[in-house]
Design a protein that fits this description.
Elements lengths: L1 E6 L5 H12 L3 E3 H11 L2 H10 L7 H12 L8 E4 L5 H8 L6 E6 L2 H9 L1 E3 L5 E3 L19 H24 L3 E5 L4 H13 L2
Helix pairs in contact: 2-3, 4-5, 6-7
The chain binds adenosine-5'-diphosphate.
Length: about 200
């Protein structure tokens, strides 16, 4: 199954991508995670990426497309994949057409007020768990950290860019008949059930 999970920053892509990936045994490919790994390694790509990410800006399309092309060549993508955070621009969406057939795009729609709380309150663990100081506080003793770009100024910029770039991507996938929209601001279990009910029909 070749899938894309879309949503504004904070819509719950990371959380639900993990669940979908486990359920269907397909890799969860997050371009944001790939870039954060490169930043952590201190690679040339990481250094370039950091300067964009810290400002909440998107990286140039060429760089992202190259990363995705390489990733899709790996063996674990043979029976499908789930993109999270890609495509982020219409150029990326069009390029992807030449590389892979997308069967479903699921958009998690959320109100901005909730997105802001989710992002400013978001805390992560090294092994990929995501907590929120307002809604789902980390248990005592669990070590958490905050993403560098989860500060209010960068969050506002990320949201602004998301809304500027999203509409054409949505239209593109609507025309292809693969676009599905669900609320991302309901209970986590409800959102996940709604995602599965879409995927079961594919
Ligand atoms: P968010 O939680 O804001 O949705 P991600 O974790 O997916 O973000 O990505 C974090 C940052 O990495 C983005 O703000 C951007 O700088 C960069 N990035 C990730 N994916 C892409 C992409 N497909 N195109 C351009 N930049 C990207």
């Amino acid at each position: 199954m070749n899938l894309i999970l879309m949503g504004a920053p904070g819509a719950g892509k990371g959380t639900h991508a993990k669940g979908i990936s486990e359920r269907y045994s397909i890799p969860h490919i997050s371009t944001g995670d790939i870039l954060r790994d490169e930043v952590a390694k201190g690679s040339e790509l990481g250094k370039t990426a950091k300067s964009y990410m810290d400002d909440g800006k998107l990286l140039p399309d060429d760089i992202i497309i190259e990363i995705v092309k390489q990733r899709l060549k790996e063996d674990d993508c043979k029976s499908g994949f789930l993109f999270d955070g890609f495509p982020r621009t219409i150029v990326q969406a069009k390029k992807l057409e030449g590389i892979a057939d997308i069967e479903a795009v699921i958009y998690l729609k959320c109100d901005d007020e909730i997105l802001l709380k989710r992002l400013t309150g978001r805390r992560m663990t090294d092994d990929g768990r995501i907590y929120n100081v307002y809604f789902d506080p980390p248990p005592p003793g669990v070590e958490v950290y905050q993403r560098d770009d989860d500060n209010e100024e960068t969050i506002r910029e990320r949201l602004k860019i998301f809304y500027e770039t999203f509409a054409p991507i949505m239209d593109f996938y609507k025309q292809r008949g693969v676009f599905h929209e669900i609320r991302g601001d309901e209970e986590r279990e409800v959102v996940f059930r709604n995602i599965l009910s879409i995927l079961e029909d594919i």
